[in-house]
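Re-run with default settings, no changes from the original entry. Doing this only to confirm the output is reproducible before filing.
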Amino acid sequence: MFWTFFNIILIYMIVNKFLEFLRANDTFSAQVKLVKLGLAEITPFGVFFTGWLFIFTTIFILEGALLYETDPDNLDYVEIPYFIATFIQVFRNSIGDISAPRYDFWLRSSQQSQGEITWSQGIMIFVVWFTFLFNIVFNLIMMMNFLIAIVSQSWD
């Protein structure tokens, strides 16, 4: 575990030093300054966006919704914990790689009651879809437009 963090820090330092070498050249100096300025400007956005991803991940888990495929022939998240896999899929949904929610938990409980969906199960399925649509509208449309505005403002 220590070596993983050490390697990440080492790679960060190598990239930073490489960008410093590129600044010595007049051709690359402006681009390097813009990249550093853009990264500095989007850091608060990244923290805010990650917070919302954690909130939506927690909501989906509490609702019993699945956002990824659990079919053994088509696994995207092999041996990844449930929370992390849901977090990754919420992130993928928020950048446009949309995967519709599944509510097998609520359908399984309807199979125990002679196959009919009760009103409470129907409400929970509606809540799952409402949360999914709110996640798409909020993260994909609003937050990505905020990111575009932040980056374009920093480059003016």
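The helical segments are 2-23, 26-63, 82-94, 104-111, 119-154. The radius of gyration is 21 Å.
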